[in-house]
Amino acid sequence: MVLKLYGNPQATCTKRVAVVLYEKKIPFELVVIDLSKGEHKAPAFLEKQPFGQVPYIEDDGFTLFESRAISRYLDAKYPNKGPKLTPDSDLKAKALFEQGVSIEQSNFDPFASKAIMEAIFKPMFGQTKNDAVYDEAIKTLSAKLDAYEKILAKQKYLGGDGVTLADLFHLPYGSLLATAGSDLMTSKGPNVTRWWKDISSRESWAAIAKGIPAGVNKFD
Amino acid sequence: MVIGLHLSKPRIVVMTLPNSGTSPATSATQTPPPSLQAPAQSWGDHAGCILTASPMHASKLSSPVGLPIQSCFPSTDGYRSFAFAFGFLWTLELRTHLIRVHRLYSSLTMTLKLYGNPNSVNTKCVAVILYLKKIPHELITVDIITRKDNLLPEYLGKQPFGEIPYLDDDGFVLYESKAICRYLEERYGDHGPALMPSDLKAKALFEQAVSVEWANFEAYAMVAGVEGVLKPKFFPNLPFNKALYDQAIKTLSMKLDVYETILAKQKFLAGDEMTLADLFHLPYGELLAIGGNYIMTTKGPNVKRWWTAISSLPSWQAVKDKVPAGVVDF
């Protein structure tokens, strides 16, 4: 039975999973959850994802939520499909990959998502952007990207010399920064720019950046 | 007397030669008198014997072994008392010196070094794993408040974000506390309890729990902890943002309502076994109570049961107030 991804075609965390599905060409069906209708808070949804957040997957009866956990599961289940996105043999390579994943989660995501919430999502729901909160988030993100500039001077990608989930996890929020009014990803420095252009021009991201196709996604 | 250093275990061994009432030189040349053949009773005695030959026989020795102090004492007993006291104090002094040398040696040879701070939440996150798995290590204190060691160029060369902690395992440098915990679990898998499953689905549910901790617990507990405890303690001149604190606690409370339902069906967050996902809650969870919020034990019976189970672990108790600095050998 084909894997089912319950989420929204435009939602950042649904896209995070979708880019991995496209990288590894794993067939799936996108079951659209309409967030504006509150479908993610309906009892049937909460049975599967008790926090009422998108996305979650159903893989032959196995339910899993949290986009980063789903991404790791997909790479572990299909190690030979498409690129290997997590190192799994060498202890040190694994540790440096985990360091990269943690960097994204604690030094990028909180600030990028806060800036995008203010500049894009709040206006979308009729609320006013808080300029002070936006500016503070961008300022902190900028300082964090100074450290990225140093790291990426010594290695090609955030988790080492090969592309991994640690890089791909940046795509959903990173791509929205320009729309939010910040060109940090291409103006911070040569290394961050090189790395950002590399990962954001991947075919997998190009296929879903404007929205994940609903229904069955097949790869032939 | 022979003094040896046991390098495999942190122990000083002092071995003494038996029956050292005479110097080796005399036994070959003459038979000692019966009164000196009784074995020495104490280490001080041994030390005294080696330092000085019996005054009665000093002149008979073919090679001098000690200080010519016998002339300073009116009697053999007084002389022996002095030798005993001197030897005892000398052994004590020697012992203190040897402990110091041993500590220095341990520090130089300790290959696992954690650069952090005894008061830091993320240092505590790593420390509980070190203690749970009894991994010998050295905690080297980084002063982030007054000296700001973490902003020095040599520190930034290791941890470019200027954050604590980072690990140096025999030259392999790793930062991000959760990455360090995972590395320690992988490296010392056979030490203590298994904290990460390996089966595909069990691992996936573990990763789900780790992500839940970050996105649904720490995101809010950290704000409440910083606002309610860390800012007043370390940066008292900064204002307390009550609105921010209250909003964080309100959202955290809603998230813990969900924890209550999850923990009704399973013992721990990833399943029925304790994993890193549970332990990651400890540092910020603890801060909530310090800040006067007891949500971890008042939310519901399941959250309370789970929180009590993980927070009462001896390894957490050992580090929760202050992580012991220096060399730690279990």
Automatic annotation (TrEMBL), chain A:
InterPro entries: Glutathione-S-Trfase_C-like, Glutathione-S-Trfase_C_sf, Glutathione_S-Trfase, Glutathione_S-Trfase_N, GST_C, GST_Phi_C, Thioredoxin-like_sf. One of its GO terms (biological process) is glutathione metabolic process. Keywords: Transferase. It catalyses: RX + glutathione = an S-substituted glutathione + a halide anion + H(+). Residues 1-82 form the GST N-terminal domain. Residues 90-220 form the GST C-terminal domain. This is glutathione transferase. One of its GO terms (molecular function) is glutathione binding. Belongs to the GST superfamily. Phi family. Gene3D superfamilies: 1.20.1050.10, Glutaredoxin (3.40.30.10). GO terms for cellular component: cytoplasm. Its EC number is 2.5.1.18. The lineage of its organism: Eukaryota, Fungi, Dikarya, Basidiomycota, Agaricomycotina. It is an enzyme of class 2 (transferase).
Automatic annotation (TrEMBL), chain B:
Residues 20-30 have a biased composition (Low complexity). Its EC number is 2.5.1.18. GO terms for molecular function: glutathione binding; glutathione transferase activity. Residues 19-38 are annotated as: Disordered. InterPro entries: Glutathione-S-Trfase_C-like, Glutathione-S-Trfase_C_sf, Glutathione_S-Trfase, Glutathione_S-Trfase_N, GST_C, Thioredoxin-like_sf. Keywords: Transferase. It is an enzyme of class 2 (transferase). Residues 110-192 form the GST N-terminal domain. One of its GO terms (cellular component) is cytoplasm. It catalyses: RX + glutathione = an S-substituted glutathione + a halide anion + H(+). The keyword Repeat does not apply. Residues 204-330 form the GST C-terminal domain. This is glutathione transferase. It comes from Tetrapyrgos nigripes.
